[in-house]
Amino acid sequence: MNVRDFLAMGGYAAYVWPSYAFTALVFTWMVLSARKAHRDALAAARKRFARARSGS
Amino acid sequence: MWLWFHKLGSPPHVYRIAGKITPWFGWIGGILIAAGVFGGLVLAPADYQQGEGFRILYVHAPSAWMSLFTYVVMAVAATIGLIWRMKVAYSVAASCAPIGAAFTAVALVTGSLWGKKMWGTWWEWDARLTSELILLFLYFGYMALRAAYDDQQRADRASAVLAMVGVVNIPIIHYSVVWWNTLHQPASVTKMAAPSIAPAMLVPLILMFFGFNIVFGALLFTRVRGEVLLRERGADWIRELLGKS
Amino acid sequence: MSARTGILRAMLLLAERDLRLAFRRPSQLCNPLVFFLVVTTLFPLSLSPQPSQLRDIAPGVLWVAALLSSLLALEALLKSDAEDGTLEQMLLSGQPLVVLVAAKTLAHWFVGGLPLVVISPLAAFALNVPGDAILVTAEGLLMGTLTLSFIGSVGAALTVGVRRSSVLLSLLVLPLAMPLLIFGARATDLAISGEVASGPLYLLGALLAFTATLAPFASAAAVRIGLE
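The joint structure predicted for all components is written out below.
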């Protein structure tokens, strides 16, 4: 089976590829947003301790 | 054994362990998904009835399963938090919501694309599709309710009640294809008798299921670490942690 | 009402108080009812008023209108009591909060939902719904509005500590109310086509039984959380 046939997915390309693409997109978002949430929580904690140390 | 359970309630312990196992879960899950995608797109033979279109199954079915599984995890964690007043349990519940909503969105979108080809329509108001859509709204409602409360404790507890109330939807979604005449295909893998699907098609699906579950673990632990930090305000262990980094 | 008052008597006292307060402002009482009528007449006005078309959309219109009017009235269930401290008094009264919340919900339905049921034959007639289907609609709405009040009480209780909660309230209640909408509209739809509508009606009854027994527990728990 050559590459063109593979990409055409027997005529279902318009449905199969967007499905996989959307899934990949959402997974990417999940990974990035989870890591960002963690980073933000760390930054907030740092800020809290900095404020405490500066005696405010 | 109780010591292990007790340790799960300790935020610094959970933070540390989650940090250690997240990379393992992430990579192993990622490899399983890659293998599943390759198997599903390349190795599995075309379906007799649906041709190449059935390959959407390999992203649709695991996502749908995860959307339900995540909600159950969220509801159980919320219940544990409410009954035993464990902040770590609330952290787990809060972490589940965005992940569950994402999986639900994937299930709905991939299902819609598949349905367009299979049934000729982008959407049909049958029992399974409608109850899955309700699930998405439940996730949004949960996150919105959380956000509405400034006080973290009240947000945790109110959303816990909501999570418990909404869990009614889960058996409805799961059994909808049994209880009603729906367009959606009935269960073909989880029947206790031999699954009615060819092995070459089945293996990539199983890989995807495991891969999705394990990646879910990695995503969950990442978010839990952040949530735990938010609930522990000025604790000493955080100061030490920050001092080291 | 003290801790020594019997449960049934406490419920009746509370319901009586709520009804009395509601009737003090008759104009506010009518709002959900008028809203229901306005929404159901909006559709024949905006679409071409062909009898067959009206009949087709009638189930959906009637049930969505009932849902929206219930949502409109829902905030009033707990908000004013929370603001003036009455809700806290209820918590401290020594009576089980579950029955007090149930009593409030029933009183709220009596004032908000029951009028809808009574006026629904008129609205259904205006939408060209045939005779026996009107009866099925009224039966369905009787169970449906009651169920909505109980589901709504959970949403109202969850948002009792939140300022400007009306949108959030709708966001919480609508997903929980969707099955109700589906069965209710289906009952009316079947009756309009002349078929037997008992299936969906039984399901509506089951939903009511399920919700009425369990919702007050969830609402009471949520009220406790919201007031702390």
